[in-house]
């Protein structure tokens, strides 16, 4: 996310400039250390050419950090192993990586490349904002500041709370959910294919994610503002209430009779 964000600012158009202004100003909500950190990140007292130089350096360095994490992930995967196709934790159900997972991952990779190259070569502007072709101008604010599509979900969470600090905390919690999920869903089976109730709720969750992302790109007016709040609330209710409850029910149903 950091690599994508700092890379988006490099064209230095209107959306890049004001997107960088909005996102970096979030750090100022952190008590005591927020403002000094933002000034260091800006290289001054606002987003400027110094900020662009810093972001270019960060955008160059972060991919190397990602490569290290990928190698670490592969090393842990080979040493610890993965789960079976059905999400079972029993060693007897394990499947060799080759050929099943090799061809499965290769197919997914080729599908991704097909979509990626189609967008790059035929519709390069389908996900871009036309205002970003206007050179950055700190004296003119765009009528509607919209982040890139992959940040719309977090932008919607940020806008759902009037308080700046609380909004930043909620946005960080929306990202921290990825680290909390293994502790919230602790069932014997991890595959949704064998958990019918969880499977149904999962698609409600996916539909709500799409709705939250769409609302993040809309203006902060009614009825979008109210729908934004409700959809974000549904997201957190699903993660912190519905998932643990379904997991508890599944665990109870897996117990032998009389236990």
Question: What is the number of strand segments?
Answer: 0
Poorly predicted runs are none
Count of alpha and pi helical runs: 9
Given helix and strand content, the structural type is mainly alpha
CATH topology of the largest domain: Cytochrome Bc1 Complex, Chain C
Strand percent estimate: under 5%
- According to CATH, the homologous superfamily of the largest domain is Cytochrome Bc1 Complex, Chain C
CATH architectural designation of the largest domain: Up-down Bundle
Q: How many domains make up the 3D coordinates?
A: 2
The N- to C-terminal Cα distance equals: 46 Å
**Rg (CA only):** 22 Å
Top CATH class of the largest domain: Mainly Alpha
Average of per-residue pLDDT values: 85
Helical proportion?
A: 55-70%
| H/E element sequence | HHHHHHHHH
Main β-sheet: number of strands, strand sense, barrel status? Answer: none
Name the shape in a single word: globular
Task: Describe what this molecule looks like in 3D.
The protein has helices at residues 2-8, 14-25, 34-42, 49-80, 97-122, 152-159, 164-184, 196-216, 224-254. It has two domains: 1-145, Up-down Bundle (Cytochrome Bc1 Complex, Chain C); 148-252. It is built from nine helices and no strands.
How are the SSEs placed, and which strands pair?
Blueprint (H helix, E strand, L loop, with lengths): L1 H7 L5 H12 L8 H9 L6 H32 L16 H26 L29 H8 L4 H21 L11 H21 L7 H31 L5
State the gist of this model.
The protein contains nine helices and no strands.
Fill in the keyword field for this structure.
globular, mainly alpha, 259 residues, Cytochrome Bc1 Complex, Chain C
């Amino acid at each position: 996310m950091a690599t994508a964000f700092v890379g988006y600012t490099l064209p230095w158009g209107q959306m890049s400039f004001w997107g960088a202004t909005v996102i970096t100003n979030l750090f100022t909500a952190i008590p005591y250390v927020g403002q000094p950190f933002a000034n260091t990140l800006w290289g001054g007292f606002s987003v400027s050419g110094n900020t662009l130089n810093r972001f270019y350096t960060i955008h160059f360095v972060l991919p190397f950090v990602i490569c290290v994490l990928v190698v670490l992930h592969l090393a842990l995967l080979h040493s610890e192993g993965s789960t079976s196709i059905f999400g079972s934790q029993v060693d007897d159900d394990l499947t060799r990586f080759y050929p099943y997972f090799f061809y499965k991952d290769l197919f997914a990779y080729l599908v991704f490349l097909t979509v990626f190259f189609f967008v790059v070569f035929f519709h390069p502007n389908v996900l871009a904002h036309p205002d970003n072709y206007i050179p950055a101008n700190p004296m003119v604010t765009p009528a509607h500041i919209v982040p890139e599509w992959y940040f719309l979900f977090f932008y919607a969470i940020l806008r759902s709370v009037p308080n700046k600090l609380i909004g930043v905390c909620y946005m960080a919690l929306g990202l921290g959910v990825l680290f909390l999920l293994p502790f919230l869903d602790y069932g014997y089976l991890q595959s949704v294919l064998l958990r019918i109730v969880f499977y149904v709720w999962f698609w409600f969750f996916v539909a709500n994610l799409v709705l939250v992302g769409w609302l993040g790109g809309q203006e902060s007016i009614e009825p979008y503002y109210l729908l934004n709040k409700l959809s974000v609330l549904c997201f957190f209710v699903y993660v912190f209430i519905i998932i643990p409850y379904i997991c508890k029910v599944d665990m109870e149903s897996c117990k032998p009779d009389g236990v």
